[in-house]
C-alpha cells in the first residue's frame, strides 16, 4: 500500500516588519496559493497538515476550503529556528549560513537549531503522519529547508544543492511503501 506525501513549500512571503511565526504571504504569494490549489485540487488529498507558521498555512488554506477539509497544525513541521528569538536570517547571511550548516549538521547559530535537531523533529512528525495515514494522500504546508531536511533523511540527493534549486511555491510528491521512500516526483505549479 503506497502513501503519498505532497510537500508544499510555501509561496512568496513578506520579508520585513514581522516575526517568523506571523510572516504571511505577499500579494505574489497569495497568487502562488491559488496556483497550488489549482495543481492539487484533483489529486485526491485525504488530509492536510501544516507548519504553524502563517505563510505555510496560507499556502494551503484555499485548498483546504475547496476540499472541505481542516488543516492540522503540527508544531514540529515549523521552519528551522535560525537564531535566538526565532528571528529571520538576513538574506545576505543566508547562503554562508546554509553552507556551514550542511557542512556540519551540528552547527547552529547562537540560539538556533542545528540541521540535525531540525531534521530529527520534522522527520518524527512526518513518520507519525505516515503511520496515521497509511495508503492515503497527505499534503503538508512546509518550508524549503525543513522540506529538504525531511527528504534528505530518506535520500541523500536532497541536499543543499537541491534546496537551492527549489522555488516558492514548490511541490514534491514523496511515495512511501512500508515506511520506505520509493519515489519522488516534482509537480509543476502553473
Automatic annotation (TrEMBL):
Pfam families in the record: His_Phos_1 (PF00300)
InterPro entries in alphabetical order: His_Pase_superF_clade-1 (IPR013078), His_PPase_superfam (IPR029033), PGM_Phosphatase (IPR050275)
Descriptive protein name: Histidine phosphatase family protein
Amino acid at each position: 500500500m503506497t502513501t503519498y506525501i505532497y510537500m508544499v513549500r510555501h509561496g512568496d512571503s513578506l520579508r520585513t516588519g514581522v516575526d517568523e511565526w506571523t510572516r504571511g504571504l505577499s500579494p505574489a504569494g497569495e497568487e502562488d496559493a491559488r496556483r497550488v490549489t489549482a495543481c492539487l485540487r484533483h489529486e485526491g488529498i485525504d488530509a492536510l497538515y501544516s507548519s504553524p507558521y502563517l505563510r505555510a498555512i496560507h499556502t494551503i488554506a484555499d485548498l483546504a476550503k475547496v476540499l472541505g477539509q481542516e488543516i492540522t497544525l503540527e508544531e514540529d513541521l515549523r521552519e528551522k529556528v535560525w537564531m535566538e528569538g526565532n528571528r529571520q536570517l538576513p538574506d545576505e547571511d543566508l547562503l554562508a549560513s546554509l553552507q556551514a550548516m550542511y557542512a556540519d549538521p551540528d552547527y547552529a547559530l547562537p540560539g538556533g537549531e542545528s540541521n540535525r535537531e531540525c531534521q530529527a523533529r520534522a522527520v518524527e512528525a512526518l513518520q507519525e503522519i505516515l503511520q496515521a495515514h497509511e495508503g492515503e494522500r497527505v499534503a503538508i504546508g512546509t518550508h524549503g529547508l525543513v522540506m529538504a531536511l525531511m527528504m534528505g533523511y530518506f535520500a541523500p540527493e536532497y541536499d543543499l544543492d537541491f534546496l537551492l534549486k527549489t522555488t516558492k511555491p514548490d511541490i514534491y510528491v514523496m511515495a512511501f511503501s512500508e515506511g520506505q521512500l520509493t519515489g519522488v516526483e516534482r509537480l509543476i505549479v502553473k
